[in-house]
Amino acid sequence: MFSSFFNRLLLFFLLFSLVLGGKAFTGTYGVNYGRIADNLPPPESVVTLLKAAKIKNIRIYDADHHVLRAFKGSGIEIVVGLGNEFLTEMSVGEDRAMSWVKENVQQFLPGTKIRGIAVGNEILGGTDIQLWEVLLPAAKNVHNALSKLGLAKNVQVSSPHSEAVFANSFPPSSCTFKEDVLPYMNPLLQFFSQIGTPFFINAYPFLAYKNDPQHIDLNYALLEKSPGIYDAKTKLHYGNMFEAQVDAAYAALEKVGFGKTEVIVSETGWASRGDDNEAGATIKNARTYNLNLRKRLLKKKGTPYRPKKVVRAYIFALFNENSKPGPTSERNFGLFKADGSIAYDIGFTGLVPSSATSSLISFKVYIYI
After folding, report:
1. Are the beta carbons of 222 and 174 closer than 8 angstroms?
2. Residue 120 neighbours by CB distance under 10 Å
3. Of 135, 139, 329, 360, which cross-links 274 as Cys (Cβ 3.0–4.6 Å)?
């Protein structure tokens, strides 16, 4: 009897570990560590900064070896990026995916906690239809390579999407995928469902407000107190746009048969500066959004439509990036400036420059995620 009970207990813990093993994001608050700049602190300093801030999850957009070596032994969990430019090559054959995984993932494990690979970024709904066609085979080949190396249990394969995959998202319950996206999205969702991957969406209330400031309540976008919106179909009230965007993704997934798939926000943030035609891009608004979002994520709660699904999000971005193309806002999403000082105060300090050098002074973290 004891032996039978022990075996059942052992099986339970084995299955439990397997369920947890594939998760790339076990916390609720992560940060995107973009590096399209020529003036950022070295990765070693970034590790110190993140550890002091108690940020345990980051996402990078490549698999830079300097960064991965710097994070060795830090305990910080990383999602690396397989750039859009590699997708066609990865889709051709598993041998190429195998080489990439060995070179950019396997050799850094287990010292560097690589927990996920984002295969491409914002492919479906974008302008390059050829990439739509190679996304799924590329993702499959990367996953198969991880499986053959015995790494698939701990390294999750995903692919973040933009809001461009949706035909509409207001009210949340009406959200659907675009008709031209569905032939590519459905098999991708089927594959990710089989391997236990969540749906990753880049959700920006800032972009929605910037594009239509006349009809969107700024407080609603900033997670401030507002009348919010009412979804008549679900009879649910939304006090902020962030939760409405997450639930819109859940509604779209449900309509195509993937209602149990978890939604994770792979990017969200607010620009602290912008051009004259970029409404809302101010330091005050960026501080308000990011502070309110941290408080909201700290609560570890769900959304109106999925109250039992804890919301997880990666903030965009760690630093302002001076080499990014496009409007001024693109270069001003950072929680920190390029010298490591804070872009605005949401409860911590960073790398503060002196007359000669920069030194790390103690963080004042009032919010723990």
Report:
1. no
2. 25
3. 329
CA angle 69, 72, 73 (to 5 degrees): 165
Could you give the CA distance from residue 18 to residue 22 in angstroms, rounded to a whole number? Answer: 7
Task: Go through the chain and tell me how many residues it has.
Answer: 369
Q: Which two tokens stand for residue 361?
A: 């002074």
Phi, psi of 31 (to 5 degrees): -135, 140
CA separation for the pair 86, 111 (Å, rounded): 26
Q: Round the average pLDDT of the chain to a whole number and report it.
A: 90
Catalytic residues: 122, 267
Q: Which of 235, 272, 137 is nearest to 145 (CA)?
A: 137
The amino acid at residue 38 is D
Quote the pTM value: 0.89
Locus of tokens 């965007």: 245
State the amino acid at position 350 in one-letter form.
Answer: G
Helix (H, G, I), strand (E, B) or coil at 151: coil
> How far is C-alpha 343 from the chain's CA centre?
21
The amino acid at residue 160 is P
In our burial notation (b when 16+ CB lie closer than 10 A, e otherwise), range 48-64 reads bbbebbebbbbbbbebb
Model pLDDT for residues 201-259, shown as the tens digit of each residue: 999 999 999 999 999 999 999 999 999 999 999 999 999 999 999 999 999 999 999 99
DSSP string, 187-226: HHHHHHHHHTPPEEEE--HHHHHHH-TTTS-HHHHTT-S-
Interval 79-124: pLDDT, tens: 999 999 999 999 998 899 999 999 999 999 999 999 999 999 999 9
